[in-house]
Structures are given as C-alpha cells and as structure tokens.
What we know:
Enolase-like, domain 1; globular; 10 helices; 26 strands; alpha/beta; FAD/NAD(P)-binding domain; 5-stranded parallel β-sheet; binds flavin-adenine dinucleotide
Amino acid sequence: MKIVIVGYGPGGASAAVAARMFNSEADIKIVTEETLESHRKPGASLALEVPDTSDLAINDWSWSELAKKRIEVLSGTSVIKGNAKSNSLQITGVKGSSTLNYDRLILATGGIPDVPDIPGVELPGVFTIKDMADTSRIGKQLSGMNTIIIVGAGFSGLETAERLISLGKDTHLIVRSRLMRRQLEEPMSAELLLRLPRSLHVHTGVSPTSVSGNGKVDGLMLNGKKLEADAVLFMTGVKPNVELAKQLDVRIGPLGGIIIDKQMKTSNDNIYAVGDCVEVNDSLTNKPLLLPVGSVAARAGRQAGVAAVGGKKIYEDTSKRLQYDRIFGTDIVCIGHSSTTALNMGVKTSVQYIHDDAEFTKVALVTDHKGQLIGGQVIAPRMGARLGYEILERVESGAILQDKPLLKPRHERLRDYLETTYGPIR
Ligand SMILES: Cc1cc2nc3c(=O)[nH]c(=O)nc-3n(C[C@H](O)[C@H](O)[C@H](O)COP(=O)(O)OP(=O)(O)OC[C@H]3O[C@@H](n4cnc5c(N)ncnc54)[C@H](O)[C@@H]3O)c2cc1C
C-alpha cells in the first residue's frame, strides 16, 4: 500500500507516524516544500534567534527518526499537479520532476498567511511567516534593523514579539481591538496586557490602513498617523491552502477549507485531509469551523494516518481547541470555546472568573445555557498547563460546573492536600 502525505507540519508528520504504527508494511512518503528539518512551525518564531534550526527539530519527527520508521521525506519538493483519476501527483524538486502514485493520499498542506489587502504590503521589509525557512531568512534580514512592527496579537504575534524583544529590537505590537480577542475573554486579555513587559509597545484599538515607504518600508499608517519602522511583520492568521485539493476535485466547504468526516476522509474515498487546510466540525454545534492550531492538526493527523491504512478507530476531539503557550514568562492556556467563538456559532454563554491572588492566577470558565462547561482560559505564572488539563477533562466529560468546581479556595486545597497525605484534620 502506497501512502503519500503532502506536508511536513504537525498534521503531516503525525499522520505518517500513526500510519506506520498501524501498518508495518506500507510504503510511506512525505512530500514537502520545506527545506529545513523541523516540523516545528508552532515554534517557528524561535528560528528568528536560533542560528541552527536543526536544534528546533522535535526528536520523534526528525528526518532521521522518520527514516528509522521507514518514512521517506522528499524535502524541498513541490506537488505541482494532482490527478484524482489516476491517483497520481506530479512533483518537482531538487531531484528533478517525476510522478508519484498513491493508494491513499493525505493532504496536510497547511494555511496561507492572510495579509490585509492594504497598499504597501508588497514593499521590501514586509514579512509573513509561512515556514521555518521563511523565519530563518527573516531573522537574518532583521538583524540589521532596529524598529519592527508586528501586526496581530494572537499566539503567533505575541510569540514573535517575545523573540524580537529578546533580540533587543524596538518592538511594536498592533492590536485591532484587544489581545487574543477570539480566544480570551475581555478581562483575561486585560490581565495578559498587564503581564507584558514595558519594553513592548502595545498599540490597542488601531488598524493599519497602509504600509508606507519608497522602495522599502519606512513605517505603518495607523488611523492617519505614521508609526515609523524598518520592517512590518503581519501575523494576522492564515486561510486554508486548498490549491492542490481543488485540482483533485475534493469538496471545499463554505469557509474555504476542505470538508472532512470523522476519519478525516474527504469527498474522495482515497484522500484524507488534516490541519490548517480543512474545516473541522465543531463538537458543540456540528457547524463547520476553521481551527488553525498545531495541536489540533497533530491530533487530526493521527486520525488520518490510522484511517488511511485501514484502521477503524475514531479518536474523539480532533476538533477541540487546546492551546498552551508560555510567552513573556506567563502561561496562556485556551481550551474549547471562548464566549466570542461560541457566539460566532450562535451559542450564548456565561463566563465565571476565578482569581487566585495567592497564586497570581486568573481563570475564565465558559458555560452554555445549561451550565455545561464548554471552554476555559488560564493566565498563570506557572502550572497553567495543569489547570488547562483539568478544564479540558471537565469539558470532555460534559461537566456541569456547580457539580465539579475547578479551583477550591487555597486554604481548602491545602487542607485537602494535608488530609490526603496525613489523614483527617479536625
Ligand atoms: C509563528 C507561528 C507560531 C505558532 N504558534 C503556535 C503555537 O504555539 N501552538 C499551536 O498550536 N499552533 C501555533 N501556530 C499554528 C500552527 O503552526 C499551525 O496550526 C500548524 O503548523 C498547522 O499544521 P499543518 O500540518 O496543517 O500545516 P503546516 O504546518 O502549515 O505545514 C504545511 C506543509 O505543507 C507543505 N506544502 C503545502 N503545499 C505544498 C505543495 N503543493 N507541495 C509540497 N508541500 C506543500 C509545506 O511545505 C508544509 O510542510 C503557529 C503558527 C505560526 C506561523
């Protein structure tokens, strides 16, 4: 059985490994335009400051580890055409052009940076991060520059800001409304803002109207005022990369992503798709949803890999947000829906906040009209991931919040700990 996977991001790499675990005989190949050995786009901003990007490879998915699993990686290779009738792809790369046949194809082609359509975005000095090679190249170009503007305050914008600050750059962050507006409740955004370093200049409530410059960037126009800069980085999200899927006549959904079922199968029985290029089915409403998150891509990849080699197992929750990052010394965790993403799907919510002053931790818990927990967020100096998993467990078990409170007051937690360790306390 020939399995071809297009893409070496978290979706493609995890699909390959899962396919191998379930089928020791299959011929498994990954085709990727990437030239650097690292799937680590979620950590791509690290490449801005790490000279040797091979240091960033995740061991399990490094090319040598994949080779040990008999998974061949055709790097620096583009799929330029797909033919679903003959189950074949035309590829071109460092080794020339050829045709690759498949029995099962997994598309993990990721997303394309979604840059606002404003004048000046084509000027030298405007950047987007598409892959590791991009980031590494951008890092070299930025080394001679001082003032850098980042547009977009999601995880990737904040991560990139952290790298630039650590490189000593005069860094500005442009935020249309508030930090991580879609993932975080308003008070959580405000809490996060308080924890950012003063050296990062955060401009909230502004949108760029054009990039200014004559031959190269010299600034960004914001509500009629110019903010001078040597470079502008747009970290404004991605849209699904479905060019190859369209050639293969695979069905595309209303949001522009590939339509898939629970096994990650597309409208063509021989083709699966995962990651930023697909529309997932929201587990709360069953409506289509774009969820361009690395951990979601990795979980979906595992499902597609298993299904592509004939496995029947269905992994639940390939469509639930679980994002954790540590940025500027703060753990930021987002689970499931926020009130904003839920409202976008037509679901009204209530939000309960827990502020643990002793631990300097703030938690938001999002419930639907029945009081069922559908999401949560954590901002904490440490142990955020642990709290995040507690929330995830409750979301997955359909918990009603009153029955299973998340955080007891600190003195009660201490008492519980002492009682389980030393026996009852009177
Ligand atoms: C700076 C940055 C920071 C981020 N931080 C986080 C984070 O902290 N946590 C998180 O969960 N997510 C994060 N993300 C998002 C995350 O990186 C993506 O959701 C994830 O990489 C998507 O994985 P994927 O497998 O769908 O595709 P991608 O990782 O985008 O990979 C797409 C692959 O497809 C290949 N490809 C596409 N078309 C072709 C073709 N025609 N021929 C050959 N190859 C092709 C590309 O070469 C590439 O290997 C971040 C993103 C960025 C940009």
